[in-house]
What does this fold into?
Amino acid sequence: MKEREDRITRQSFMKTAAVAAAATALGSALKPALRAFAQTERTAQREGDGEWKSTTCQGCTSWCSVQVYVVDGRAVKVRGNPNSKVNRGNCCARCHLSLQQVYDPDRIKTPMKRTNPRKGRNEDPRFVPISWDEALDTIADKIMDLRQNNETYKYMLMRGRYSYMRDVLYDRMTKIIGSPNNISHSAICAEAEKFGPYYTEGLWDYRQYDVSNTRYIILWGADPLSANRQVSHYLSVWGDVIDRAEVAVVDPRLSASAAKARQWLPIMPGQDGALAVGIAHIILAEGLWYKDFVGDFKDGANKFVPGQQVSEEDFEERHTHGLVKWWNLELKDKTPEWTATKTGLPVEQIRKVAIGFGRAAPHAICWVGGGPAMQVRGGYTAMAAHALNGLVGSVDNIGGTLKANKEYTLQFPAPDAFLDEIAKAGKAHKKIDQRGTKAFPALKEGKPGSAVVTNNAADGVLNEDPNEIKVAMCYMNNFTFSCPQTDRWERALSKIPFIVHLTTHASEFTHFCDIVLPSVHHMYEKWGYVKAIGNAHRHVTLLEPVIEPIWDVKIDETEIPWLIAEKLAERGFDNLLRHYQEYIDPETGKRPTNEREFALYSLKYATHHLWDPAEYKGGDKFTGWEHFRKTGVWNSDPYPYRKRWSNMATKTKKFEFYSETLRAALIAHAEKHGTTVDDILETCKYQARGERAFIPHHEEPYLWGDEKEYPLIHVDYKSRLNREGRSANCPWYQELKDLDPGDVPWDDVAKLNPIDAKKLGIGDGDRIRLISKTGQIECHAKLWEGTRPGTVAKCYGQGHWAYGRVAAKEFGKVPRGGNNNVIIPADYDRLSGSTAFYGITRVKVVKA
Amino acid sequence: MKSSEQQNQSAPWRMVSRREFLKAGGAGAAVLSTAQNASASERSKPKRLAMVIDLQRCTGCGGCVVSCKSENNVQRGVAWAGREIRTTGKFPNVRFEFIPTLCNQCENAPCVKGCPTGAMHKGYGDITMHTPKKCIGCGTCIAMCPYDVISRNDEDPHRHWRTGDALIKGCTSSPEEVTGRVKGNVVPYYNDAKEESAPGFGMRYKGIVEKCTLCDHRVKKGLLPHCVLSCPSRARVMGDLNDPDSAASKLLAKYRPWRPKEHLGTEPKVFYVRSFNAGASEYTRGSV
It folds into this structure.
């Protein structure tokens, strides 16, 4: 391993030296221009009369910088932006699908209003077209009503996907109107995944993985060749990665990544934590931990003997905290035999993976995806699996797990001066998602009640707890489809008297709305930016209007709030408009005077330090805004390895196997509610008591449904074509559905192992019904050996009943297949506020 | 090779060389120009363009399939770049395999031999080409092809884009309306680059067959096929088999390739190397 490390270091040294030499010779101002020129040379291939224009694909959270080939104002095809150091000219199949999204005939082309006052799944909204003026006047009147009645806290903003322009609408507008209720989608994404790294290394964030320099990768319910983050980067290097590294995939179903891995560990759903502590046990018992990071026994003899307590005095830790406590409290009895019983995996395979992983230290990655984390007790599983990175010293290390590189974007102007007394009083109310209550600690970054509990907002609305909601604005979200136990959202939305949806398509959410505002397609028609990490770099990539929209659509995050601000000002409340006028164009010093200027100036404002050479802080350098805009992406400096060892954002600054950070957070939450940590854990459905609450440990999965009545466990996962649930109306999505291993084009199948199918008398292609405690869906059966017996695997993405002519079998009425979220009960990993999708639902399968 | 060269010469619409195209300076001119301008050296060293697909690099992402549809305006239900997908074995010893497929550009192409009109013929770089004007849609090529990569248009393509119905009256549009607004051609994201290949080849039409022509409209300009550039996994490598230093030749020298149905003697020029299911095998002597 030493050898490899040297090679990397030498390489990066040479690179640095060369750049330095170039900079000295030519003057630093020339450097980026030269770099950009070189890239253009390499990739410039004349195609015809069109032009490749830079923008960003938000088809998944990879957020690749991409380019669109535009001929006479018409988008023709797409490719990765060669200027990015993160996705490096690559994009995946999802990006191509965007062509069928932007030109989807089912896009909304005009503002519309509901004419059927009754709301419900079976009520046709009877939408009719209206003018922007009428739509905005109606919205402004509703907001003014709330303000006049001192009820601004009954306003709610729901956000789905976003760009980093989000705070204009999500934060500033909600605050200045005077509501605490800006509810993001984050907790239906993978917040529980962040719980692991935060309570071990102080990082509440998604990681990047240095796969090109690693020797071992364990993928925990992550399928980076399909979904997760930086897919196109991983696609581009994987063929080489598997030459150098052994890949083991922990997943109850044969995923795309498992198909290319050496080891597939088809684990019992929900038992990932057992495997993680089992691997930790073997690594310690075999003496394979990375001593340069973790430290060693003072006398050098390994005292981690299975079943035996170890004295803390005997071990000297280096960059970690609490290893011996972890062993004594959790690991000492977690033998391979115990692990095999829990996980349903063979002892030999468990030992092989653990020893292989330990021997690869420190270039060994535990990649914790949403799978093991987004479960009812998943926060601790995320901790346990991520703690293995601490054991092998791969945290912040070459070939290991890394945080984001530094970037230099700016926050928008502060709203405080524009909050009047009504707003301040309104904002002081409790949030509708009930975060911070006893049953929802939602411990983001160590602070009780700081994480969103997205899916619980439906219950908050339904129960008027803490209060009723009268006006809701919602954008780029579809919670009636994307949140488990969808019927609660249908009822909650039916209850809210006035809802505005900012969207490209009429969706299952729109079905319950009163005013619908047609929004731009983010990749083709919008100004914005996002930040993404990968390949040991970070990029800030621009969303740009590369084509003129066909219809009168507006930008959801900037233009629409501006237009509402104007309407509010007309009604005597000009605070929001005056606030937005502070977003001054750094290039010209001009204040925005209309929505179009505002959209552009606010973006230039936020990215000012990236493109203005006078404000240069690091990474790529540009000659000015126009240069940045054309290039489309800013790249950070390369990753500074091992800078965080013993300098982590934890209580002890160390990597914590015994989390003092979690201990403090749990105590703070317990004290807030005048009770004990044990009581909190019981309330929140966790099994740990006492000291075990503060260490990564195994918890049994919390499954809804009795095994006798619901014999199979549902395995949910995301399609590699999903574009976050928005692409099912693209014919290419349906045609290519078999790219998801086991799936069938133009169909939605539940995959049963032939053993279970035989027992149930179900044949391949049979129409079946999946029934859980909370709902039922219909789809077709697929007999597939890639499914673990005892489970039924079904991909999320199909089952739309109102997302266009292709996605739904009959628009507004009959779904194509079934939406997994109908059968998944609404439950939570309450410590992180996350919604559970995996290892939660027992089902019975019957012929339909 | 000789026969295909002759066919090329005799084709009335002519394929043009990259040099010629550049000289002519545009698509319109290119179609009209003739192969007689090609230099003697170019004619004496014809290319045999091949594609090598490195299955270890392939991730089964489908980038090739969808980007081909985008580049070549391929209609719903038809795939010039396709895939063979297999799951074999019994749990937990299961293998999932993804094999990207396309027209194999056979040296002894049965479709060319069988075509009664010369519509299917050999062109630049020994690409198996198709001339819509000559095609009578008899389907002999489809019957002859052992690889099932040719399809026939029983109706005008993209019928789903040829409708005028809106989902929500007055609020959403129709396929025809979208295409009309952006001045596309049946599909709004229509790519007219394919017209450079042959008139009528941009969209194809009812009554003729169609298949992958290895992005001849790009290749002749010195551009890689769109599926090759769009493969994020870098699994597709193009090269000239007559050039031992081409990237494709080098790969074929390094790894033992295989081709589908080799026993038929079609001599495909699409080669596969390495395995989709990579990684070291478990050490064992097995048992008896």
